[in-house]
Amino acid sequence: MCANLSLFTLPHEILTRIFALLEGRHIARCSAVCSYFKDIVGCSAVLQYFIKLDMFGYLDVSGSVDVPAISATRLSQLGRHIDAWNKLDWMESHIRVPFQYEDFGILCQGIIAMFNLKSVCCIQLPHLMRGIQFRTWTLGDFSFPIYQIEIDPSNNLLVVMSRILVRVSLSISSRFPIKARIQELQVTFFSRPL
pTM of this prediction? Predict the structure, then answer.
C-alpha cells in the first residue's frame, strides 16, 4: 500500500466533481477545512453556483453535475435573479396565449393546459433562468369526452378524467405505463347551501 496517497494528490477536476455531488452548505463546509479546498471551491463556478443555490433555497432541476454544462453563465444568471428579487426589479414581458378551448384546465410548473371535449392544448411558458422557450402543442382526438384534467410536468404525466380514468404521457400523447388501470371513476360533488 502506498503511503503517499491523500486527497491532496487528486487532480482539481476530480475533487470538483466530488464536491459537486454535495449540497451547497456541505461544499461551503468543505471549503473551510483547509486552504487547498478553499482554493478549489473558490475557483470553481460550478461549486459557487451550488453554494449560492443552497443559500437561497433553490434547486438545480437539470440534475446535471457535468462541470462544463454548469458554467459561469448560470452563476451570473442566478446572481441577476437574486438581485432582482432583492430590489423587486422585474422584467416585464407579455405573451399572447390563444384561448381557443372551452375550459381553462390548469397552470402547473410553467405549463398552461386548456381542454375541450376531445383534446388538450398545452402551452409551455418561457423561463429565462432555465433556458425554456415558449412552445405549444396539442394532445388530441381522445376516444372519450374529457371532463377534467390534471398535469404533473415533472413526471411527464397528464391525467384525463371522464367516466374512464386514463393516464397519458404529457409530451408524446401515448398511454402512460401503469400496471393496474382504474376502469371507472365515480365523481361525487359536495356543495354547501348559500
Answer: 0.53
